[in-house]
Design brief:
Order of helices and strands: HHHHHHHHHH
Low-confidence stretches: 150-165, 322-328, 330-337
Shape: globular
Helix content: over 70%
Structural class: mainly alpha
Distance between the termini: 63 Å
Number of strands: 0
Strand content: under 5%
């Protein structure tokens, strides 16, 4: 790409990374601090897991995507490990979305047993299983399915593990057959199909129950449908942002490098990363509990800011004598002598 294109790509990646980090930090704070007892609800636990994965995309995956583009010289082992980190975070997002879909399905179809099944201990175990599976699936190339054979070798005295690759890029160590057959079809498309079927079943069931339910029961079912719509929207956005990049990998595998231009490929990369920045916006507009938590956090921030400003004004107006002020920036609401 032209030099201006590289600059534009890097600037956009930096903006996406900042949005991912700040937005998903706010989501975690909203769920853990703003919503009382929210962590007892499995759905919000899985949302936190998804938000953590999206946060790590901003602080780890996006910087790695920029660095692993020929900017650094690394050994193949290290280059492969860092590339696998990106796969782990993507897989954590997929499995967190799957856990959310399964949770909403069980909540709707097994209401009498749901509370007994969805305990806090089991929910934490499910989150742990999601991340353990993500690591196992994402780090699969470390066990042999990689592109080391395509990396150059300068002499018989230099082993492949100590050889410094002149251009560490994602596809120089991650093989396209792995990305297409294992990662795309097995680790992304299969869960997406399962989630699509679950949400179709959820909406079909909700539609039938709304017709036959009393006005009192309809209010609860409508709230359930609104939350299901919001979570399904998160799923649709994930698929819309990630499938184009995977389809480009398919074209690269079956038709060669000439099938996809560099500009198109980098647009797909930006779109996949942008997904992690969009989710907090969806939560803010679509999930009432998180809306309320955002409002509480914003109100506390403004109160704190006003308290700091008021403390400065008192100190400035002081004329040499000691002043009592009940709320100051550094005292946490205690009186300061």
């Amino acid at each position: 790409m032209a030099e201006w294109s590289w600059v534009a790509y890097t600037v956009l990646e930096v903006l996406i990374a900042a949005a991912c980090s700040l937005g998903n930090t706010l989501v975690v704070c909203a769920v853990c601090v703003g919503i009382r007892d929210s962590l007892r609800e499995p759905t919000f636990c899985f949302l936190v897991s998804l938000a953590v994965a999206d946060f790590l995309v901003g602080v780890a995956a996006v910087p790695l995507a920029v660095l692993l583009d020929g900017w650094v010289n690394l050994t193949p082992d290290l280059c492969l490990f860092l590339s696998c980190v990106v796969l782990v975070l993507t897989q954590a997002s997929v499995l967190s979305l799957l856990a959310i879909a399964v949770d909403r399905y069980l909540r709707l179809h097994t209401p009498h047993r749901y509370k007994a099944m969805a305990t806090q201990k089991r929910t934490c175990l499910a989150v742990s299983v999601c991340w353990i599976l993500s690591c196992l699936l994402g780090f699969t190339p470390l066990f042999g399915w990689h592109n080391y054979s395509t990396l150059p070798s300068d002499s018989t005295n230099t082993s492949s593990s100590s050889f410094i690759s002149p251009s560490c890029t994602f596809l120089s160590v991650i093989s396209l057959p792995f990305m297409v057959y294992f990662n795309f079809l097995g680790c992304v498309m299969a869960p997406l199909l399962v989630m699509t079927l679950l949400y179709m079943r959820i909406f079909w069931s909700l539609q039938g129950r709304l017709k036959d339910s009393s006005p009192q029961a309809q209010a609860s079912l409508l709230r359930e449908r609104r939350l299901a719509c919001s979570l399904a929207l998160v799923l649709i956005l994930f698929a819309s942002c990630w499938i184009p990049l995977h389809l480009m990998n398919c074209l690269l595998l079956f038709h060669g490098p000439q099938a996809v231009t560099q500009g198109t490929l980098y647009t797909g990369i930006l779109l996949s990363h942008a997904n992690s920045a969009v989710n907090p916006v969806v939560y803010a507009y679509r999930i009432p509990k998180i809306q309320q938590a955002y409002s509480q956090i914003w109100s506390r921030f403004l109160m704190r800011l006003n308290s700091c400003h008021g403390d400065k004004q008192v100190r400035r107006s002081s004329t040499g004598h000691r002043t009592n002020h009940t709320e100051t920036c550094g005292s946490g609401g205690r009186a300061t002598p």
